[in-house]
Design a protein that fits this description.
heterodimer, A: 481 residues, mainly alpha, Arc Repressor Mutant, subunit A, two-stranded antiparallel ribbon, 19 helices, 4% strand, extended, disordered C terminus, B: 282 residues, alpha+beta, Immunoglobulin-like, 2 domains, four-stranded antiparallel β-sheet, 6 helices, DNA repair (chain B), DNA damage (chain B), transcription regulation (chain B)
C-alpha cells in the first residue's frame, strides 16, 4: 500500500510545509481519486485497479422486484351472519351462514337445485297381480327390493350390498346385482307401459329407454371388462402383435385393390363404368367383386361386374329395378287422391277386405260389459264413445288411446270402490272388537248380537257375498255400543 | 302390367270423403196450401254428396260428382210414405220429401202407439245403400241416418226440444250431416285408374262458414248457426285436439285415482294390523 506523504504527515500530526500551495494540488488529485471511488467495488480493489474499473461492475442493476399485487378491492368486505331459506327443505328449518354483505338477502339458495329426487314407482295390489307376477320373485321380496331402492336412492351397489331378505328362496339367493337391477327395471317398464300416460309418445319412449336393462348383456359386459383388466403381460403382447398384423393385412389388401382398379381402368379406359373407388371402400365392391375377379381374369369379368356395382350411370341402372322411393311428389299425389300405402310385402293370403265406411272402424270398447261406464266417463269430458265428427284415419287412431285411458280410469274407480269398502268393513270390525274388549270388563252387555257379529265377520273373511250382510250387522252392533 | 287386368293393386288403400245427411225446412203457409196433403209441416232433402262444398253454394257439400264410382243410391224411407224405397241412379243422389209433424195432445196419444211414433215426431231412420260401379267389384254398403227436422238444442237448456212451428221457421233450415270416408282396400287397377282420374277437391283448410253441428261435439252448437254450414280441415284438427286433451285429462284422472287407491290400501293394511293385534290380545 502506497503511503503518501500526506498520510504520514497526518498520522504524525506534522503541519504541512506549504499548506496553501501544495495541499490544494494534492488534494485535488486525491479528491479526484476519492471522488471517483465507486460504490460497487471495495476501496482496496479500486486502489488496485485504478480508475479503469469497468463501468458495468460498478453498477449492479437494482433488483426490480414485482410490485405487490393490488388485490381487487382495497376496501374491506363486510360479511354478515344471515339466516337463509333452503328451497329443498320441506320442514322449514332456518339455518344461518356467513354471506357477503353485498349479496341480496333473499336470493335463492344455490345448492337447492341439486336436490333431485328420483322417480318413485309405487304399484297397487291390483297392478301387481295383473302385470308384475314373476316365477322367481314373490311379492314380499319385490316390495322389499323397492323399499331398499327408495331408501338408498337408486344406488344399486349399495342396495345389493345391504340386500338381506329374511325369507330368501334358496333357489334364487344370493341375488346378484344384475338380478335385482333386472327385476327393478322390468317392473318399472311394465308400469310405465301399462299406465295411461299424460304427455306425448316421445317422452314416454324416452323414459322407457332410460329404464332399459339387458341382464345377459350386462353380465357379459362386466365379464369382458374384468377379463380385459386381468390380462397377463404375455397376453397383452400377443394381442398387440396380432393387431399389428391385422393392420398390415388391411393395408396390403387396400393397396392390392387400388392397383387392380388402376390396372383395369388403364386397360379398359375411363368409361368402363367403374366408379372411382375411394381408398378404403370395402362395401359392396369388395366381397362380391373379388371372387369373380379371381375366377374369371381381368378382361372378361367386366360384363358380369357391371350389374353388381350399382352406380349412377345409365348402362347400369337399366339392369336393376329402381327401388321405390317416396319422393315429395308421390306423397303429394297420394294426398290428392286420398291414397294410403301399406306394406305390400306381407303375405296376404287373407281374403279381400271389402269396401267399408271408415266410421265402422271406430274402436269398440272392450270389454263390452263396461261400455256404459266408459261412455259415462267420456261423456263427462265431452267425447262420444262411438261417434266421431270427422272419422278420418288419424282421428280414429287417436280414439284408441282415449278409449284405453277411459278403460283404465273405470278399472281404477272400481278398485278404489273396492278398497274403500274393504276399509269400511275393517274399520267397523276394529271398532266392534275394541268395543267388545271394553265391554268384556262389564260383562252384562248383550252377548248374542256380538257373537253373531263375530261369526258373520269370520264369514266375511271367507266369502265376499257376506260383506253387505256383515256391514249392516256391524253398524247395528256399533249403534248398540 | 296391363291396366285393365283384374289385378288388385297390393298394399294400397284409397278412400273418398263423403257426407250424408239431410236438410229440413219449415213449410211456409203458401207452400203448405200448395201441397196435396195440406197437413204436412216440413220439407226435407236427404242426400249423399262429396264432402267438399262448392264455393258460394247453398247446399252442404256436393262440389264433386260422385257418379264415377257410385252407380246407385237407394234410400229406404218410413213405411208410411208411398214407395218407401227410393232409388237414385244419377247425381244428385238425393231424395226430397215433405213430412208431417203433429204436436201437443195428438203427439201425446201418438207416442203411445209405436206405429205413429215416427209420424208424430216426423223424424225417423232412413236406410241408405250405396252401390258401386261394376269396375270396383265391390258389394254395396249400407248405413243409417236419422232424419232431423227439429232444430238442434243444447241438452239441459231451457228450450223445449221441439219448438213451435213459427219459432222453428225463424231459426232457418236444420242441417244434420255426417262426414265419412269410403275406403277401398287394394282396388282393381282399372278401378284405381277411374278413381285417380277424378281426384276429389280437398276440404277447405279454414272455416269460412258455420260449422256443421254434431252430437259428438256438443260445444259446436253456437258455431253452427247462421247459414249453410261447410266441412273443413279445421274441424278435423279441432277434433284431434279434443281427443288429445281428453287423453291427457284421463291420464291425470287415473293418476289421481291411483294415489287415492294407494292411500286407502295403506290405511287398510294399518287397520288390518290393528285388528290382528286386537284379536290376539283378547
Amino acid at each position: 500500500m502506497a503511503a503518501s506523504a500526506a498520510d504520514v504527515r497526518s498520522i504524525l500530526s506534522i503541519p504541512t510545509p506549504s499548506a496553501s500551495t501544495s495541499t490544494p494540488q494534492q488534494k485535488k488529485p486525491q479528491a479526484a481519486e476519492r471522488a471517483k471511488k465507486p460504490d460497487g467495488i471495495p476501496r482496496e480493489l479500486y486502489a488496485l485497479i485504478g480508475p479503469s474499473a469497468p463501468a458495468i461492475a460498478t453498477q449492479f442493476a437494482k433488483p426490480r422486484l414485482k410490485q405487490k399485487p393490488n388485490l381487487g378491492s382495497g376496501g374491506r368486505v363486510k360479511w354478515e351472519w344471515r339466516p337463509f331459506k333452503n328451497a329443498a327443505r320441506s320442514d322449514g328449518l332456518r339455518l344461518s351462514h356467513w354471506a357477503k354483505g353485498s349479496t341480496e338477502p333473499d336470493a335463492d339458495y344455490p345448492w337447492a337445485k341439486y336436490n333431485i329426487q328420483t322417480a318413485e314407482y309405487v304399484y297397487s295390489q291390483d297392478e301387481y297381480s295383473r302385470l308384475l307376477e314373476d316365477q322367481e320373485w314373490t311379492k314380499e321380496e319385490t316390495d322389499y327390493l323397492f323399499k331398499l331402492v327408495r331408501e338408498y336412492d337408486g344406488r344399486f351397489y349399495v342396495v345389493h350390498d345391504r340386500y338381506d331378505y329374511p325369507h330368501a328362496d334358496p333357489r334364487f339367493s344370493p341375488r346378484t346385482l344384475e338380478d335385482i337391477k333386472d327385476r327393478y327395471f322390468s317392473v318399472c317398464r311394465k308400469l310405465v307401459r301399462n299406465r295411461p300416460w299424460a304427455g306425448d309418445e316421445a317422452s314416454k319412449n324416452a323414459l322407457l329407454s332410460s329404464l332399459s336393462f339387458d341382464k345377459s348383456r350386462e353380465i357379459t359386459r362386466k365379464q369382458y371388462v374384468k377379463d380385459l383388466e386381468t390380462r397377463t403381460p404375455e397376453q397383452i403382447i400377443e394381442e398387440d402383435a396380432l393387431y399389428l398384423e391385422l393392420e398390415k393385412l388391411k393395408e396390403n389388401e387396400r393397396r392390392f385393390r387400388k392397383d387392380r382398379d388402376e390396372l383395369l381402368r388403364t386397360l379398359l379406359g375411363i368409361e368402363s363404368g367403374l366408379p372411382d373407388l375411394p381408398i378404403d371402400d370395402e362395401g359392396l365392391q369388395g366381397p362380391s367383386v373379388e371372387p369373380k375377379k379371381k375366377k374369371k381374369g381381368v378382361a372378361s369379368s367386366v360384363e358380369p361386374q357391371t350389374p353388381i356395382t350399382p352406380s349412377a350411370s345409365n348402362v347400369i341402372s337399366l339392369a336393376q329395378p329402381q327401388p321405390p322411393k317416396k319422393t315429395a311428389k308421390s306423397a303429394a299425389y297420394d294426398i290428392l287422391h286420398c291414397i294410403t300405402r301399406t306394406d305390400a310385402s306381407q303375405a296376404t293370403k287373407a281374403p279381400h277386405q271389402p269396401v267399408h265406411l271408415r266410421s265402422t272402424k271406430i274402436p269398440a270398447v272392450k270389454p263390452p260389459g263396461a261400455t256404459q261406464r266408459v261412455a259415462q266417463v267420456l261423456n263427462e269430458i265431452g267425447i262420444s264413445h262411438n261417434r266421431l265428427v270427422m272419422p278420418t284415419a288419424e282421428n280414429i287412431a287417436r280414439m284408441e288411446p282415449v278409449l284405453s285411458s277411459a278403460n283404465s280410469v273405470v278399472d281404477m274407480k272400481k278398485s278404489l270402490d273396492k278398497v274403500e269398502q274393504d276399509l269400511r268393513i275393517a274399520k267397523a270390525r276394529l271398532a266392534a272388537l275394541r268395543g267388545e274388549t271394553a265391554e268384556e270388563g262389564s260383562g252384562d252387555a248383550p252377548q248374542t248380537p256380538m257373537e253373531v257379529e263375530e261369526g258373520a265377520d269370520a264369514e266375511s273373511v271367507a266369502g265376499d257375498r257376506a260383506q253387505s250382510v256383515v256391514s249392516t250387522k256391524s253398524t247395528r252392533s256399533r249403534r248398540q255400543i | 302390367m296391363a291396366s285393365s287386368d283384374r289385378v288388385r293393386v297390393k298394399g294400397l288403400d284409397i278412400h273418398r270423403p263423403i257426407i250424408y245427411g239431410n236438410t229440413a225446412w219449415v213449410l211456409t203457409q203458401k207452400e203448405r196450401e200448395a201441397l196435396p196433403t195440406p197437413d204436412h209441416t216440413h220439407r226435407w232433402t236427404v242426400a249423399v254428396r262429396s264432402a267438399t262444398s262448392a264455393p258460394d253454394s247453398d247446399i252442404v257439400g256436393g262440389a264433386d260428382d260422385l257418379s264415377h264410382f257410385i252407380k246407385r243410391v237407394t234410400f229406404k224411407l218410413h213405411d208410411t210414405y208411398t214407395n218407401p224405397n227410393r232409388t237414385v241412379d244419377k247425381p244428385p243422389f238425393e231424395v226430397s220429401e215433405t213430412g208431417y209433424v203433429a204436436f201437443c195432445l195428438v203427439a201425446e196419444y201418438a207416442r203411445l202407439t209405436a206405429r205413429f211414433f215416427a209420424y208424430s215426431w216426423g223424424e225417423f231412420e232412413i236406410t241408405i245403400r250405396i252401390m258401386f260401379v261394376q269396375e270396383s267389384g265391390e258389394k254395396s254398403i249400407t248405413f243409417y241416418h236419422h232424419l232431423k227436422l227439429h232444430p238442434w238444442t243444447a241438452p239441459g237448456s231451457g228450450e223445449p226440444e221441439i219448438p213451435p212451428l213459427d219459432v222453428a221457421a225463424k231459426m232457418g233450415p236444420v242441417h244434420s250431416w255426417q262426414y265419412d270416408e269410403i275406403v277401398f282396400h287394394e282396388p282393381y287397377q282399372a278401378f284405381l285408374n277411374i278413381l285417380t282420374a277424378h281426384p276429389p277437391k280437398p276440404l277447405p283448410k279454414t272455416k269460412r262458414r258455420p260449422v256443421p253441428f254434431h252430437t259428438a261435439n256438443p260445444g259446436s252448437l253456437e258455431a253452427s248457426k247462421g247459414g249453410v254450414p261447410e266441412f273443413t280441415q279445421e274441424m278435423e284438427k279441432e277434433e284431434a285436439e279434443r281427443l288429445e286433451a281428453a287423453r291427457v285429462q284421463l291420464a291425470k284422472e287415473y293418476q289421481r285415482l291411483q294415489l287415492q287407491v294407494l292411500q286407502k290400501e295403506a290405511e287398510l293394511s294399518q287397520v288390518k294390523k290393528e285388528i290382528e293385534s286386537a284379536t290376539q290380545v283378547s
